[in-house]
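call fold(seq) -> tokens
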Amino acid sequence: MTRVQRIALLVALAFLVGSIGYAIGSRSGDGVAGGGSPSPDSADVGFLWDMIAHHEQALVMSQYQISGGAEPRVSKFAREIVQSQSYEIGLMEAYLQRWGQPRYRPDDGRAMAWMGHHAMATDEMPGMATETQLERLADATGRDVDALFLELMKRHHDGGVEMAEAGADRAEDRDVRELAARIARYQRVEVKELEMTRVWLGLPRVDL
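ret:
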């Protein structure tokens, strides 16, 4: 199977898993306390917009690793990220549609404002890889891909945990709080597993 074919297969898998999450999310939810739907400037909607964008970059990085990496153990991590985060994206899309909100943030310069942060562009959120880093990952091969992927994903997860902990604390909708708490919990564990895997495989710590 060629690299292009592997990426195409992963995209199809991500779509299928995301569709399952979307179907489940469409059938759940009690809304915010007191009834009604969260507003666009709420923590609930802001968290979903920002975490969808954050997850989407994780899918891109995982696809690069699976298509070009050398270590099966690292590829296993990447495939698990594709599956779990595609499913979560589907859930988040369903919650937004339930509230009549668009999938993407209309104003890209307002990311993280719901957390009390200085508003920023989506690609400046905590843990997000730069365009240069993504190009470097796309161009790398073999164990170079594996080492770079692990380093980028650890940083990416660290940023995701920060956002998810804030979502679990600030969101009003029960489903959003539970999803955010689960993301924070799993990604904290995965950061440790990614570093343990790097050490076990003897991969270098990459300077980002």
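The chain has one domain: 3-201.
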